[in-house]
C-alpha cells in the first residue's frame, strides 16, 4: 500500500508543469498574469500564461476601461496613499481601508470584503481584452478559505421543482396563494417566492404539470429571467450584476429560435404579469447574463448567479474549488498554495474529461477556447490522458496545420485521423456507461490491446463505471477496487493536484478495499502481527486524510 505520506502531501504547492515560478514584483500590473481563465465571459483571442489559466472577459465593469493597472499601492490596495488607492472590489479610487487587513476597500464594499472574522484574500484587477479577474492579495495556503459569495438569484434549471427551495416535487403540495408547486407548505413564504407569488396570484398564472421529471417550459429560463429582473429593482448586488456582466448577445442572437422565444417571453412578462417596465432588450440581456454566468446547483435542479464567482476564471488546472457544491452561498478553498499576485481560478467542468471534450463543452456553453497550462500541453503534464499509445511506445498527439488536424505519434510519426478517433472515443464513452461489471472487465483487455493505456481517459471512465457498479466484496473484486481507485487517484494527482474532494473520494475507496484485503490475509495467516499492525496504521492515517479531503474543512 502506498498512500500520500500525510494529509498535507496532497496539498503541497504544485505549480503548473513547465510554468515559471518567478514571482512578479508587487508594482507590476496584472497584464503580467496573462493567464486569465475563461470565466463565463471569455475572449477567445488571448494567450494563456504560465499560471495555468485560460482566457475570459467577464465584463464586470466597462469594456472600455483602461487595462493599465495602478501602481503597487493601487493594485494591491495596501499601504497608505494620500491620493487614494483602488478598492479591492470595485477598483474605484478610495482612501478607505479595511481596518483588519489594511487593504484598500471603499465603504460600499467593506461588507463584501470582510465577512465576520474573514477578510477575502484577493483583489479585483482589470486585464486588457479580458475583463475583471480575482488576484491573490497575499500568499494563500492550501486548505484556506479563498472566496465566499452569496447568490443574488436562485431559480429552477428546467424541470418542475419547489419554488421555495428547489427540491423535487410530486404534485401533492401547491402554494395556497398562487397554486404553483411546492415541496411543503413551509416553502410558501420563502423569500425567493414572495414577490413572484403575488404576481402569479394577481394574474391567475399557474402551470399544469404532467411529468415531474421532464423539462417544463414554465420552469426553464423564464423563471430565472423573471427573478433576476425583479431582484435588480430591489437588490443592489443584483442590479450591479445585471448592469456589469456580459451577455455575449452578439453571438447568442444568431440562434433564431432563441430570439423568437425571448420575444414571446417579453410579451408574457408585459401582458400576463403586468410588468410593463420590462423591455425586450432587458430580457435578452438577462438571458445572456444567466446563460454565461449562472452555475448549476442543488443536484443540477437549480441555477444560481453569484456576483463574485462570476469573476473567477476557468482553468482546467484551477487552484480553488467549492467546499460543498453550490447552494445559496458558495465557499471556495485553495487546493494548493496560491502565491500573492496569482490569479484565483476554478474548473467549470470535471477534470476527468479529455481535453478535446472539455474544449468542445467550453466552446459550446461559454463561448471561449481554453488556453490554460493543461490545454496547451499536448502531454497533459506527462499523463497522456487524452492520447492513445502507439505500438512503438510513443503517443498520438494532436497536430493542427491550417485546416488539417491529425494525431501524430511522437515516437514513429504514425498518423491517425483526428475526427474519426474522437468519434470512436465518444462511442466508447456511451458504451461504457451502460456496461455491467463483467462486460467492463472484458472490454478493458480489448482497449489495452488497442492502445488505450491505464491512464487514458477512456480507461479511467471504465474504472469509474466499475467502481459505481461493483457490489461484491470477494477478494478479486476488492483487488480491482483498490487497483482502479489508485489509478484514478494517480491521474488526479497529475491533472488536479491538491486538497480536492474528488481525490478524497478515490483515496477513500482505495483505503476501504485495502483494509478488507488486509483482514482477509490476516485470517489466512499470510501476514504476521507486525505487518498487520503496520498496514492498519497506514490505513488509519490515510483514512483521516481522505475524510478531510471530502469534508468542508477550511483553515
Strand order of the largest sheet: 7-13-12
Estimated helix fraction: 25-40%
Provide a count of the helices: 16
Task: Identify low-pLDDT runs.
Answer: 18-82
Give me the count of strands.
17
Largest sheet: 3 strands, antiparallel
What percent of residues are in strands?
5-15%
Content-based structural category: alpha+beta
Shape: globular
Rg calculated over all Cα atoms: 26 Å
End-to-end separation in angstroms reads 29 Å
Mean pLDDT, to the nearest integer, reads: 85
Give your account of this protein's structure.
It is a single chain. This protein has 555 residues and is α+β, with helices and mostly antiparallel strands. It has 16 helices and 17 strands. The longest helix has 23 residues, at 501-523.
Main features:
three-stranded antiparallel beta sheet, 17 strands, 555 residues, 16 helices, alpha+beta
Topology, element by element:
Blueprint: H1 72-76, E1 85-86, E2 93-94, H2 110-113, E3 114-115, E4 118-119, E5 122-127, E6 131-136, E7 145-150, E8 153-156, H3 194-203, H4 221-231, H5 236-244, H6 249-252, H7 256-272, H8 280-293, E9 295-297, E10 302-305, E11 313-314, E12 320-322, E13 329-334, E14 345-346, H9 355-365, H10 373-376, E15 396-401, E16 404-409, E17 415-417, H11 418-432, H12 437-449, H13 457-469, H14 475-495, H15 501-523, H16 529-550
Parallel strand pairs: 11-14
Antiparallel strand pairs: 1-2, 3-4, 5-6, 7-13, 8-10, 9-10, 12-13, 15-16, 16-17
Amino acid at each position: 500500500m502506498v498512500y500520500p505520506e500525510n494529509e498535507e502531501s496532497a496539498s503541497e504547492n504544485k505549480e503548473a508543469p513547465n510554468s515559471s515560478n518567478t514571482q512578479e514584483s508587487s508594482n507590476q500590473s496584472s497584464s503580467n498574469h496573462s493567464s486569465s481563465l475563461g470565466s463565463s465571459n471569455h475572449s477567445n483571442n488571448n494567450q494563456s500564461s504560465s499560471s495555468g489559466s485560460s482566457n475570459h472577459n467577464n465584463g464586470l465593469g466597462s469594456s472600455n476601461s483602461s487595462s493599465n493597472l495602478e501602481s503597487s499601492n493601487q493594485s494591491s490596495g495596501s499601504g497608505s496613499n494620500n491620493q487614494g488607492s483602488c478598492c479591492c472590489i470595485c477598483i474605484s479610487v478610495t482612501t478607505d481601508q479595511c481596518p483588519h487587513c489594511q487593504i484598500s476597500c471603499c465603504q460600499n464594499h467593506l461588507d463584501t470584503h470582510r465577512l465576520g472574522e474573514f477578510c477575502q484574500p484577493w483583489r479585483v484587477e482589470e486585464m486588457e481584452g479580458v475583463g475583471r479577474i480575482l488576484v491573490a492579495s497575499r500568499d494563500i495556503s492550501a486548505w484556506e478559505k479563498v472566496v465566499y459569495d452569496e447568490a443574488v438569484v436562485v431559480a429552477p434549471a428546467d424541470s418542475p421543482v419547489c419554488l421555495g427551495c428547489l427540491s423535487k416535487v410530486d404534485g401533492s403540495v401547491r402554494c395556497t396563494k398562487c397554486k404553483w408547486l411546492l415541496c411543503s407548505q413551509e416553502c410558501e413564504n420563502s423569500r425567493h417566492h414572495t414577490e413572484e407569488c403575488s404576481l402569479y396570484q394577481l394574474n391567475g398564472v399557474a402551470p399544469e404539470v404532467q411529468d415531474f421529471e421532464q423539462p417544463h417550459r414554465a420552469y426553464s429560463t423564464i423563471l430565472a429571467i423573471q427573478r433576476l429582473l425583479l431582484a435588480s429593482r430591489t437588490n443592489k448586488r443584483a442590479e450591479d450584476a445585471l448592469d456589469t456582466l456580459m451577455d455575449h448577445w452578439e453571438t447568442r442572437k444568431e440562434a433564431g429560435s432563441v430570439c423568437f422565444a425571448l420575444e414571446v417571453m417579453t410579451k408574457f412578462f408585459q401582458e400576463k404579469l403586468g410588468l410593463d417596465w420590462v423591455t425586450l432588450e432587458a430580457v435578452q440581456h438577462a438571458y445572456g447574463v444567466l446563460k454565461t454566468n449562472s452555475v448549476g446547483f442543488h443536484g443540477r435542479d437549480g441555477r444560481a448567479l453569484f456576483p463574485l464567482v462570476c469573476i473567477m476564471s476557468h482553468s482546467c488546472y484551477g487552484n480553488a474549488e467549492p467546499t460543498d457544491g453550490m447552494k445559496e452561498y458558495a465557499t471556495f478553498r485553495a487546493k494548493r498554495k496560491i502565491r500573492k499576485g496569482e490569479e484565483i481560478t476554478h474548473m467549470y467542468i470535471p477534470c476527468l474529461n479529455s481535453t478535446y471534450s472539455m474544449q468542445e463543452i467550453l466552446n459550446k456553453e461559454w463561448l471561449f477556447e481554453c488556453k490554460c497550462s493543461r490545454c496547451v500541453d499536448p502531454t497533459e503534464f506527462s499523463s497522456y490522458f487524452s492520447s492513445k499509445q502507439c505500438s512503438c511506445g510513443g503517443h498520438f498527439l494532436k497536430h493542427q496545420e491550417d485546416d488539417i488536424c491529425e494525431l501524430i505519434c511522437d515516437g514513429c510519426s504514425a498518423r491517425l485521423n483526428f475526427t474519426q478517433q474522437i468519434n470512436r472515443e465518444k462511442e466508447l464513452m456511451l458504451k461504457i456507461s451502460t456496461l455491467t461489471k463483467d462486460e467492463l472487465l472484458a472490454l478493458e483487455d480489448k482497449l489495452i490491446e488497442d492502445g488505450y493505456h491505464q491512464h487514458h481517459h477512456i480507461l479511467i471512465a471504465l474504472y469509474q463505471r466499475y467502481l459505481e457498479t461493483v457490489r461484491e466484496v470477494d477478494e478479486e473484486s476488492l483487488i480491482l477496487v483498490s487497483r482502479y481507485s489508485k489509478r484514478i487517484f494517480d491521474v488526479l494527482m497529475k491533472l488536479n493536484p491538491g486538497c480536492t474532494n474528488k481525490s478524497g473520494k478515490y483515496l477513500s475507496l482505495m483505503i476501504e478495499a485495502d483494509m478488507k484485503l488486509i483482514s482477509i490475509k490476516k485470517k489466512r495467516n499470510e501476514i504476521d502481527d507486525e505487518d498487520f499492525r503496520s498496514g492498519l496504521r497506514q490505513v488509519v492515517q490515510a483514512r483521516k486524510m481522505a475524510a478531510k479531503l471530502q469534508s468542508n474543512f477550511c483553515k
